[in-house]
Structure formats: C-alpha cells, structure tokens
Design a protein that fits this description.
Residues 5-66 form the DUF2007 domain. The chain is α+β, with helices and mostly antiparallel strands. It has a domain at 7-45. The chain contains two helices and three strands, in the order βαββα. A three-stranded antiparallel beta sheet has the order 1-3-2, covered by helices on one side. The N and C termini lie far apart (27 Å).
C-alpha cells in the first residue's frame, strides 16, 4: 500500500468489509479495500480496509462501534 495509508480493519468475510466500507464512507472517510481472497478458493484470504493516516483515529472509533466494542 502507498505511504500515508494505514490498515485499520481486516476480515475474511466480504459482508463485514462492505459494512465497514459503508460506515466509513458515510462518515466522509475515504477508504481503500484490498481484496486478497483467492479467486479459486473463496475460503482463503482477507479483505483489508485502509484509510489515510489523518483519519486513522476517527475510523478506528467507528469500526469499534461496528464490532460492538
């Protein structure tokens, strides 16, 4: 990933990545979703959510709400 971006969330489930994406984008935070799922074997790999470093703390707090922490 390019400099200036930080991974704040990782999941093996596409629906959780979509929920995190929708939550962060609705808060006005730009994100990048890196899909590392194997195209042949959907049980392997992760979805990683990256945000700009300046949005890190706000994004982490929003994700905590999503996780119920």
């Amino acid at each position: 990933m390019e400099k200036g971006w930080e991974m704040i969330f990782m999941t093996a489930h596409e629906y959780k990545a979509e929920m995190a994406k929708d939550l962060l984008e609705s808060a006005g935070i730009k994100i990048v979703v890196l899909n590392q799922h194997d195209s042949a074997y959907q049980n392997f790999g992760e979805y990683k959510i990256y945000v700009a470093e300046e949005n890190r703390n706000e994004a982490i707090n929003l994700i905590k709400e999503l996780k119920g922490e």
